[in-house]
Specification:
It is an enzyme of class 2 (transferase). This protein is of the alpha+beta class and 128 residues long. The chain has a single domain, classed as Ribosomal Protein L22, Chain A. Helix content is 46%, strand content 30%. The strands form 2 sheets. The protein has a 3-stranded antiparallel beta sheet. Strands 2-3 form a two-stranded antiparallel sheet.
Length: 128
Amino acid sequence: MIFGVGIDLQELKQFQKVVDRREEAFLQKVFTERELKYSKQKNFIQSLAGRWAVKEAFLKAMGTGIQNMRALKEIEIINLHGGKPYINLTGELKTKCTVLNIKIDASISHSKDYATGMVVLSRDKSFG
């Protein structure tokens, strides 16, 4: 049973401006060390914008949106073998999703100018 769906689109030029303006403080507030390390091996801005888009899509699917920047760091986007994105939650978000028995599916896509993230949250129909 679908619990929530979220999608987000990031324009790479605009995302680059945000990173340039607030660079280190922004990166440390929003991304984990593992996300930053992975993105440095790729097209840095494209990779980070995709991760940002998935984080926003996840919060939209949860129905909360970005209530505080701290929540963004509790959502870590890692890549499984073959590149499939996986959302690793920590903190309050992990607890909430565990209690609600939420399964998370995510997708990231990039083009020359945009990065997009989509998240589908589902629950077992028999769950409360």
